[in-house]
Amino acid sequence: MIEAGVKEKMTTARQRGEDLARRLPTGFHGEWLAGEPLSRHVSFRIGGPTDLLVFPRALEDLALLVRHLSAQEAPYFVLGEGTNLLVRDGGVRGVVLHLKHFSRLQIVRLAAEGMPARVLAGAGVSFPRLAQFAGRHGLTGLEFAIQIPGSVGGAVLMNAGIPGRELRDVLESATLVLPSGLVEVVPAGELGLGYRSSRLPARAIVAEVALTLSTGDPVEILRQMGAQKAHRVRTQPKGFPNAGSIYKNPPGDYAGRLIEAAGLKGRRAGGAVISDLHANFILNAGNATASDVLSLMALIEEEVERRFGVRLEREIKMVGEDQ
């Protein structure tokens, strides 16, 4: 049963969203939902409503909409697979752009034996799906991506990776949509990719990427991906919604080890709990709110700094307003 206050907030967001929808630019093609709870669209299954959730169908739609919103000084936020993201309980004002239709996967230059291949992937493609696509075509370099949830666009923003392998190792360029609506192809070396970070132009949106991959034995590539998936099953929690790693690993150490050493495994706040399997994961164990998660994060940061003198840096991104 929806609480009265939550229902009122959703109704208000829907009214704002319907007003925004009436002002969408002429020529825009795509679907929209007003007052949509973002908990339905993020891996944490937590978060309040957005005024308007919009699904652009093509690059031209995205560029047109971004130019329109920028001219109106209307706030907008981009959503892919919704991993590595905590939406606050008050939801997100303005427009959320969902890139599920940016799903192209294409080999644009078939690789001869020993020569690299160029692959195009839309920003809305699942990162593990991209890895599977490459593996099935005998292309190596993305085996690590099979165990990293999220979209290709999010992988660029976070320079997704595991110890020893990162997206920047194979990224050739990214197609960006700038706030002006201009579409620009930017070489990977100009994206400022670092450890779980990037330095894209302000409010730029990743629409597509080009990757350079090498040829390899499909059987061996798929075997390696199977081993990667098995490792993830052994070491990362499953069964409850979560957003992946909450903190970046500090230099020379692991955030999960520090949180566990601080005695925080299993600690709860409302419906949120620190995983017993991997302490750098917070789980939605049942109707958790963003406030529950933030309460646990405050506890983790305070205890780890008090005990070990290490200030953990957040990997998870947070958007929206408090309740």
Detail the topology: elements first, then pairings:
Layout: H1 4-22, E1 30-37, E2 49-56, H2 59-71, E3 76-79, E4 85-87, E5 92-98, E6 105-109, E7 117-122, H3 127-136, E8 139-140, H4 152-158, E9 161-162, E10 165-166, E11 171-177, E12 183-187, E13 205-215, H5 218-235, H6 255-261, E14 268-269, E15 272-274, E16 282-284, H7 290-308, E17 317-319
Parallel strand pairs: 2-5, 3-5, 4-17
Antiparallel strand pairs: 1-2, 6-7, 7-13, 8-13, 9-10, 11-12, 11-13, 14-15, 15-16
Helix pairs in contact: 3-5
Task: Give an overview in words.
By secondary structure, the protein is an alpha+beta fold. It folds into three domains: 4-98, Uridine Diphospho-n-acetylenolpyruvylglucosamine Reductase, domain 2; 105-235, Uridine Diphospho-n-acetylenolpyruvylglucosamine Reductase, domain 3 (2-Layer Sandwich), CATH 3.30.465.10; 255-319, Uridine Diphospho-n-acetylenolpyruvylglucosamine Reductase, domain 1. Helix content is 29%, strand content 25%. It is built from seven helices and 17 strands. Strands 6, 7, 8, 11, 12 and 13 form a six-stranded antiparallel beta sheet that branches. A four-stranded mixed beta sheet has the order 1-2-5-3. A three-stranded antiparallel beta sheet has the order 14-15-16. Helix 3 runs antiparallel to helix 5. The protein starts with a helix and ends with a strand. The mean pLDDT is 93.
**Range of helix content:** 25-40%
CATH topology of the largest domain: Uridine Diphospho-n-acetylenolpyruvylglucosamine Reductase, domain 3
Number of domains: 3
The CATH class label of the largest domain is Alpha Beta
Distance between the termini: 18 Å
- The low-pLDDT segments are none
- Profile the largest sheet: 6 strands, antiparallel
String of helices and strands: HEEHEEEEEHEHEEEEEHHEEEHE
Radius of gyration: 20 Å
Seen as an oligomer or otherwise, the chain set is single chain
